[in-house]
Amino acid sequence: MQHEAHTAHAHHRHAPAAGSTWATAAQATLHCLTGCAIGEVLGMVIGTALGWGNVPTTALAIVLAFFFGYSLTLRGVLKAGLGFRAALRVALAADTLSIAVMELIDNGVIALWPDAMDAELADVLFWASLAISLVIAFVVTVPVNKWMIGRGKGHAVVHRYHH
């Protein structure tokens, strides 16, 4: 019986590599981008509306991006029947690197974009720089997710719980 479990586990470990396509990576990144974008936009809007400086606004946006990114994964994994602690471990394993890369690129682009950090909510520059930075973050993060999925990590962990 233990050998059967090992064989099934070994077979399962190889399945993610076969699913490591660009389309799968793009879909995983789009899922991550959704949570990141919700948190990023909400953090930027809250911080800007309250007149906070760049550092606290960016910090809030990053915290909320991780929160919403993890929350979307948690929601799906909990629906699959996992307990909260196990689902949280899956979300952390699946999303941490992806969200970190996305946030690094997204906030880096905004920080380097002339005048973007000083733009107000009513400025086209605020929304354009935020949208373009998220697109760039998506493009950079897709290969990261493809690499992770190909090794049975990242969103490959989540896919084990989808039937």
Your description of this structure?
With 163 residues, the chain is mainly alpha-helical. Helices cover 81% and strands 0% of the residues. Helix 2 packs across helix 3 and helix 2 packs across helix 4. The N terminus is likely disordered.
Q: What's this entry about, in short?
A:
By secondary structure, this protein is mainly α. It contains 6 helices and no strands.
For the biggest sheet, the summary is: none
**What is the number of beta strands?**
0
Strand content: under 5%
In percent, how helical is the residue content?
over 70%
Q: From N to C, what is the helix and strand string? A: HHHHHH
Sheet/helix structural class: mainly alpha
Question: How many whole angstroms does the radius of gyration measure?
Answer: 18 Å
Query: Count of DSSP helices?
Result: 6
Mean pLDDT: 85
Low-confidence stretches: 1-16
Shape: globular
**Oligomerization state of this entry?**
single chain
N-to-C span: 24 Å
Lay out the secondary structure.
Blueprint: H1 2-18, H2 22-49, H3 54-79, H4 84-112, H5 124-150, H6 155-159
Helix pairs in contact: 2-3, 2-4, 2-5, 3-4, 4-5
